[in-house]
């Protein structure tokens, strides 16, 4: 898995990667079954990650973070994703919500929320998707109306990462339906003691069983005026500006997953005996693995290029869309081929390839469905 160079993973980032990998090596195998049973990562794990400095690594130290950059956030994501687990919602917590607060929050908001996120005391979520509004964010129906002291929030959200455990939820809502996208704002809801706020049961998903994914409901929830993130009506623009980075995080997960699939499958076919010898002795099996290894190598090269560009100048929208759709699509192709090489055992959940297969399917949906990504690319042609 580690034979393909990562030109961006050097120096301080390489040290962080080694430390994070060592921690995940010890912790994830022991905790994963419990996470999948509870459909949620335990708070103790979040707090341990906070103690080690693995949360909010791109947040300045004055707000309790690690003082790094997106390079360090990507490094933690790479170290975690290579274990094949999709339970921990840190990509949303640190890679998305913390970045929203850092870039668009007031000084009071940053001081109030970011230190608690950095320790794991607060787990954060972003509530965008609704039952009738997924990729079409302009169609959201969750509404916030002005009150004397702030906003009255009504509506519901679905498929929310970290939704069941979130202490802090950034909610996309319409504050002026007549303005369409320009009437969408972001309100921050502190869930503890929030009257009218409730959560649905953990959603029963095909894969990613340990991931905390729920519905959220807002029934006349009163949100203080000072909890408006950014300007009123500026929510849609904020979300759009951050999408290239979010898609790059999805790409990291895709590439590490296919590299892991090739590694575990190579080990399996070298050990599995059939027709008088190891499966790896069969030319068809070697050719299938050769194709998978090639696709994973090309995918890693593309991801490296996207990372280097993003760290230097920022990744443009069309390229980030290519990164997201192509890498997740190839992830599905590679893992499907690898599962087939496991035969019937590939369909058994105790084998890593089965989990990789089930977890991969959502990658082509969240972060903007792959069909949307192609449309964005086409508009730039």
Characterization of this structure:
By secondary structure, the protein is an alpha+beta fold. The protein has 3 domains: 11-122, Acyl-CoA dehydrogenase/oxidase, N-terminal domain (Butyryl-Coa Dehydrogenase, subunit A, domain 1, Orthogonal Bundle); 125-233, Butyryl-CoA Dehydrogenase, subunit A, domain 2; 237-379, Up-down Bundle (Butyryl-CoA Dehydrogenase, subunit A, domain 3). The protein has 10 helices and 10 strands. It has a 4-stranded mixed β-sheet with strand order 1-4-5-8, with helices on one face. Helix 4 (90-104) packs antiparallel against helix 6 (235-271) and helix 6 runs antiparallel to helix 7. The longest helix has 37 residues, at 235-271. The two termini are 35 Å apart.
Structural Rg: 21 Å
Head-to-tail CA distance between termini: 35 Å
Indicate the multimeric state: single chain
Q: How many domains in all? A: 3
Biggest sheet character: 4 strands, mixed
**Average pLDDT taken over every residue:** 94
The CATH architecture name of the largest domain reads Up-down Bundle
Number of helices in the DSSP assignment: 10
Shape: globular
CATH topology of the largest domain: Butyryl-CoA Dehydrogenase, subunit A, domain 3
